[in-house]
From TrEMBL:
Primary localization class, coarse: membrane
Domain of life of the source: Bacteria
UniProt record similarity statement: Belongs to the binding-protein-dependent transport system permease family.
Membrane topology: Multi-pass membrane protein
Coiled coil: none
The ABC transmembrane type-1 domain, residue ranges: 45-225
Entry keywords, A to Z: Cell membrane, Membrane, Transmembrane, Transmembrane helix, Transport
Lineage of producing organism: Bacteria, Pseudomonadati, Pseudomonadota, Betaproteobacteria, Burkholderiales
Segments passing through the bilayer: 49-71, 86-103, 110-128, 148-168, 208-230
Gene3D superfamilies named in the record: MetI-like
SUPFAM superfamilies to which the protein is assigned, alphabetical: MetI-like (SSF161098)
Places the protein is found: Cell membrane
Name the UniProt record assigns to this protein: NitT/TauT family transport system permease protein
InterPro entries: MetI-like, MetI-like_sf
Length: 240
């Protein structure tokens, strides 16, 4: 922090990097205080949180469901995994122009971008979690008469739960990344839009404030998933 402050104060220019226009920590702190007092703060936060909640919720529901099916059923693996693998390498930000064309509202397009960003980490981790479930547990459950959906609910899903929670946590991080990018292009409110607008109006300290808010929201939401996972998997704590 001190080096950052000094570099900005003396407008340090090293050739490959310059601090001539970079906001100093003191300016960022002042901008953060002003943002907390701004009536637009809640509009930005609520817009981003609603978009992330909707996109991530859909990705979690579809990703976990497909992951359980693909990881367990050979037919689902053969039919569903190849087309999903074709779509997986496409960056979520590459969907932005098509999403704008597909959805009549910008809100729909931004939610879709967050959904795409979160889907594949959740899906792949769920598949790997299902495939890693000890075959002896499944055989024992079948020997005791467990089959069908009960086998999924009572054996496979709990066995894959650690990987599922990891996928949810990773998916939440990519969800924020994709949302911010989408808001920069199609948003009117949101933390991503606030960050980009700050650059266009040359309010440079606000850029850093927006970045820090995004980081805090991403860290907090991932920590919430980890906390919820620990509550849902008490046996994991017992192993440590």
């Amino acid at each position: 922090m001190l080096l950052w402050q000094l570099a900005c104060a003396y407008r340090l220019n090293l050739g490959f990097i310059t601090f001539a226009n970079t906001p100093a920590p003191a300016e960022v702190l002042d901008a953060a205080i002003k943002l907390t007092q701004s009536p637009k703060l809640w509009s930005h936060l609520s817009s981003s949180l609603l978009r992330v909640g909707a996109g991530f919720g859909l990705a979690a529901l579809i990703g976990v469901t497909l992951g359980l099916l693909i990881g367990r059923l050979p037919l689902a693996n053969k039919l569903l995994l190849p087309p999903l693998e074709v779509l997986r390498p496409i960056p979520a930000v590459a969907w932005i122009p098509l999403a704008i064309l597909m959805f009549p509202s910008s809100e729909g397009s931004m939610v879709y971008i967050t959904f795409v960003g979160a889907l594949f980490p959740i899906l792949l981790n769920t598949i790997h979690g299902v495939e890693a479930v000890d075959a002896r547990l499944i055989a024992s459950a079948k020997g005791l008469g467990t089959k069908g959906w009960r086998l999924f609910a009572e054996v496979i899903a709990p066995g894959a739960a650690p990987s599922i929670v990891t996928g949810l946590s990773i998916g939440m991080g990519t969800c924020w990344f994709c949302l911010v990018t989408a808001e920069m292009i199609a948003g009117q409110y949101g933390i991503g839009y606030y960050t980009w607008e700050s650059y266009t109006v040359q309010a440079y300290p606000n850029i850093v404030v927006g970045m820090l808010v995004i980081g805090a929201l991403g860290m907090g939401s991932s920590a919430l998933i980890t906390w919820a996972g620990a509550r849902l998997m008490p046996w994991q704590g017992a192993k440590r």
